[in-house]
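Good morning N.,

You mentioned wanting to compare the apo and holo forms, so I went ahead and generated the holo version with zinc ion. This is what I fed in:
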Amino acid sequence: MKKIAKINSKEKERRNIIANQTNLYIAFLLKIPTLYSTQTILTSNAQPILHMSLRISALASWSTGNVTYIETETTKILLDAWLSGKKIEQSLNNLNRKIEEISNIFITHEHIDHIRSAGILNRRFGTKIIGNEKTLSSSGFFTATKRDNPYGKEFLEPGKAMRVGDIEVKAFKTSHDTACSQFYTFKHQEKKIACLTDTGNITPEIIEEIKDSNILLIESNHDVDMLKHGSRPESNKQRILSDHGHLSNVQCAEYLSQIITPRTHTIILGHLSHDHNTKELAYETISSHLEKYHQNLRKNLHLFVADADENSALLEA
Ligand SMILES: [Zn+2]
Ligand SMILES: [Zn+2]
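and this is what came out, ligand included:
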């Protein structure tokens, strides 16, 4: 009897996920504004998914700050760490996860919107910091004393891979105005997640690396007109628009049309500029482009915009 009850509960959960995914796809087609929220597929109080798989939650992905959670059954890691330690803890609690379970933080680059809490998590929760040598040196982690980062750090250079538990993590160079920015792919069994933000362009080599991802978190930073008419200094606008800046909504849409394959089932738009973009504009630009060129893609392609400081649901690759 016990076994039957367990199967039923799993089946119920599976059906809930399918129902929610279907709703989101319908929202994608109909452009229902209320579903721009990241809370759509599973609520923050949803029961944990029990079977072996690779999952992601964007805890925050905005130009003001970035932190992403990736997990399998036995391995829990973060990508970047901007939110306060307390807020990260709270976001993980929303997903029924504990901050103490996080073994590593992978750092993309030394801009403050990506590293703010990495040192705190290292000291308080023993979370190891991983990034390439130039980035960690520029972040101040490399020169820190053992007292500052007692749980250590490890280098992962662009083009190299490492294994953390049962996740294979691979780093690739991005085009950004820092010492040596990089992005990561996360692979477990046959599933793959790619998280690519803070880059002025995407090379054909990178497209090849990420096009078989099941889930892609990608930057849709700004609307070019909003940026051009904005109040920032001209030099700052040129930096954002350059090959070492950020991807615009249109660039993101055009790259996506080369990246999406039938394996891709979820696109998370992230790192939106708080003053030169809106969730609606990013969603509209990308969804209208995809509808135009990709009508025959998987019928359950999900597209949504990450939030500035509210965690998304835990999405399964
Ligand atoms: Zn950034
Ligand atoms: Zn940056």
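The longest helix spans residues 2-30.

Happy to go through it together on a call whenever suits you.

Best,
F.
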